[in-house]
Design brief:
Helices cover about 40% and strands about 10% of the residues. The chain has 14 helices and 12 strands. Strands 4-5-6-7-8 form a 5-stranded antiparallel beta sheet, with no helix packed on it.
C-alpha cells in the first residue's frame, strides 16, 4: 500500500502551520527586485536621507569614516624619478578630474560613497578630453546617479545581445555597454532629447555596488529593509512631539458657574469678547512671569495637567534606533553620540567591529571598483598623452598601474597604549615601520623624507632631540655612536653622566 501522506518538512521554517500561513514570500531571483521595485526603493531611500534625521546622519557617518579626507594612491613599481613624476602628475590630476568642475578627486570619492549608500550603487564615466583643453591629463571622471541607467529596461538589443536592467550583456554574459539617459529623468526642465537612451561602452563606465547575491547586476540601497521602520518611527516621534506641543499650549481654562453650581459654556462669555476682553471689561491675557490677573466675578481658573511622553517612550525609541543603526551598518553609539552606560572597553569593541566592516567595504568594493579603475584610466591617458614616460607600457601595464591605496587612518583610542603597542610590534618584527605609517593614513615615503630632512637640519644646527632615535634611547638616554663614543648630553643641569651604551631603544 502506497503512503500518500505529505512528508513533514525537516525544518520548522518550511512548515505551513497556522502561524506561518501569511509567511509565503516568493522565491525571486537576484534581479527580479530590480525589475519590479528598485525605483521605488531608491526613491524612498533618497526621501529618507532628505527628511529623516537618523537616515541622513547614518549616511554622513559612513562617508566620514569610510573616506574621511580621501583615499590616497601611490605607485608601487618604477624608478624614483618615475615615482616622483607620477606623484606630481597625480596630484594635479586629482585637482582637475571632476567633469562637473565642482569637486576634486577626493571629494568625488565622498560623493560616490554617499550615492552608493543612498541608492545602492553609483556610476562613474571616464570622459576623454582633447589636448587643447589644457588639462595635465586629458581625462575627467563624471559621477552619475543610478536613475540615469533605467533598471526597468529589459529587452533584446539589435546586435543580438541582451539588455538586462539597463546593462547590455553579450552571449557569454560579459558586460559590453550601459544604456543611460542624457540627463537625470527626475531633473527639472528635462527635454524630450534628454530622455533619449545612449549606449555607452562598458570600458567607459565604473559601476560601484555591493552584490549580496550571486548573479546580481544592480545595487540595492543598504537601508532597504529598514526604510519602513525608520519612516514609521519618524511619524511616531512627530506625533509625540505634536501631542506635547498642543497640550502645552493650554496652560489653563476659565470656568463660570451659575447659581446651581453648574458650569456654563464659555461660548457666551468668552466668545463674545472683543479685542481680548470679556463683557465687563476684564482683559483675557496669556501667562507670563509675575502676572497678576484679575478674574471676572463668578469665574474660576483650572490648570491643565498635560500628559508626558510616557515612561516607556525613551526605551522604545532607543530600541527602534538600534535596529535602524544595525541595518545601516553604523553602531548606535556612533549614530546618536549616546554613550550612556558604555564602558571604555565596550566602546573599543564597538569601534573595532565598525571599522572591520568599513575596511571590508573599502578593500572589497570601493578601492578595487572605484579607486583602482580611475588610477588605471589615468595611467592610460597619461602615457598616451606623453605626460609620463613608461617604456614598454603595453606589455607592462599591470606592473606600472599596480598601486598602494592608503585610506585615512583611524584615530587612536588610547594614544599612549596604542603607540607603545605599535612600537613593540615593530621591534618584535611583527610589523614594518611602513605598515604602521600606512595604517595611520600617511605615505611612508613622505614620512621618511620628512624625518630625513628633520634629522639633517638638526645635525646642521647642532640640535639633539630626545625624539631622535639615533641619539637618544627610548628612556631618553644618550645612545652610543657606532665607534663606541658617547654623545654628550645637553647641559641642562645636574649630573650629565647618564650615557647609555647599551644601544637599546
Amino acid at each position: 500500500m502506497t503512503d500518500t501522506t505529505k512528508p513533514t518538512p525537516g525544518y520548522t521554517a518550511a512548515s505551513n502551520g497556522r502561524r506561518l500561513l501569511s509567511f509565503r514570500p516568493p522565491n525571486m531571483g537576484p534581479n527580479s527586485v530590480t525589475q519590479y521595485g528598485l525605483a521605488t526603493i531608491v526613491g524612498r531611500s533618497r526621501s529618507g536621507v532628505r527628511n529623516d534625521l537618523w537616515v541622513g546622519t547614518a549616511g554622513d557617518k559612513l562617508v566620514s569614516n569610510m573616506v574621511g579626507t580621501g583615499i590616497q594612491s601611490k605607485m608601487v613599481n618604477g624608478t624614483p624619478e618615475l615615482k616622483a613624476a607620477d606623484k606630481a602628475l597625480w596630484k594635479r590630476f586629482m585637482k582637475e578630474c571632476d567633469a562637473d568642475g565642482v569637486l576634486d578627486g577626493y571629494g568625488q570619492q565622498a560623493l560616490a560613497v554617499r550615492e552608493w549608500d543612498e541608492a545602492g550603487e553609483v556610476f562613474g564615466r571616464k570622459r576623454r578630453r582633447r589636448p587643447e583643453d589644457g588639462l595635465a591629463v586629458p581625462l575627467q571622471i563624471q559621477v552619475i546617479e543610478a536613475e540615469q541607467c533605467p533598471a526597468d529596461l529589459w529587452r533584446s538589443a539589435s546586435n543580438g545581445n541582451e539588455i538586462r536592467a539597463g546593462i547590455e550583456f553579450d552571449l557569454i554574459g560579459r558586460r559590453v555597454a550601459y544604456w543611460m539617459y542624457r540627463r537625470h529623468p527626475g531633473d527639472v526642465n528635462v527635454s524630450f532629447g534628454d530622455q533619449e537612451l545612449v549606449r555607452i561602452p562598458a570600458e567607459e563606465i565604473i559601476h560601484l555596488f555591493e552584490p549580496v547575491r550571486a548573479g546580481q547586476i544592480r545595487g540595492i540601497p543598504r537601508a532597504a529593509s529598514s526604510l519602513i521602520k525608520s519612516f514609521n518611527l519618524d511619524k511616531f516621534d512627530d506625533a509625540v512631539l505634536e501631542r506635547q506641543s498642543v497640550a502645552n499650549l493650554f496652560a489653563g481654562f476659565f470656568t463660570q458657574k451659575n447659581e446651581n453650581g453648574d458650569t456654563l459654556s464659555p461660548v457666551g462669555a468668552l466668545a463674545s469678547a472683543q479685542d481680548g476682553t470679556v463683557e465687563n471689561g476684564t482683559q483675557i491675557v496669556g501667562l507670563e512671569p509675575g502676572l497678576m490677573q484679575e478674574l471676572p466675578a463668578g469665574m474660576d481658573v483650572e490648570f491643565t495637567d498635560p500628559p508626558d511622553a510616557g515612561a516607556t517612550y525613551p526605551a522604545y525609541y532607543r530600541q527602534q534606533l538600534l535596529a535602524i543603526a544595525a541595518r545601516h551598518g553604523v553602531p548606535y553609539e556612533v549614530l546618536t553620540g549616546d554613550l550612556t552606560g558604555v564602558s571604555d572597553r565596550a566602546l573599543k569593541l564597538i569601534l573595532n567591529e565598525f571599522r572591520r566592516m568599513l575596511e571590508q567595504r573599502q578593500w572589497l568594493y570601493l578601492i578595487p571598483k572605484w579607486c583602482q579603475p580611475i588610477r588605471e584610466a589615468y595611467w592610460d591617458a597619461a602615457v598616451l598623452y606623453g605626460a609620463l614616460d613608461a617604456p614598454g607600457y603595453a606589455e607592462r601595464r599591470d606592473e606600472y598601474t599596480e598601486t598602494t591605496h592608503i585610506p585615512q587612518g583611524w584615530p587612536w583610542s588610547h594614544p599612549v597604549q596604542d603607540v607603545d603597542a605599535e612600537r613593540k610590534a615593530v621591534r618584535a618584527g611583527f610589523k614594518s615601520r611602513s605598515s604602521v605609517v600606512s595604517t595611520s593614513g600617511e605615505d611612508p615615503d613622505v614620512v621618511n623624507a620628512e624625518i630625513d630632512q628633520d634629522n639633517k637640519l638638526a645635525d646642521d644646527l647642532g640640535f639633539v632631540f630626545d625624539s631622535d632615535a639615533r641619539k637618544t634611547s627610548n628612556a631618553g638616554l644618550t645612545q652610543a655612536r657606532p665607534d663606541g663614543t658617547v654623545i654628550p648630553s645637553p647641559d641642562i643641569g645636574g649630573d650629565q653622566n647618564n650615557g647609555d651604551t647599551s644601544n637599546g631603544q
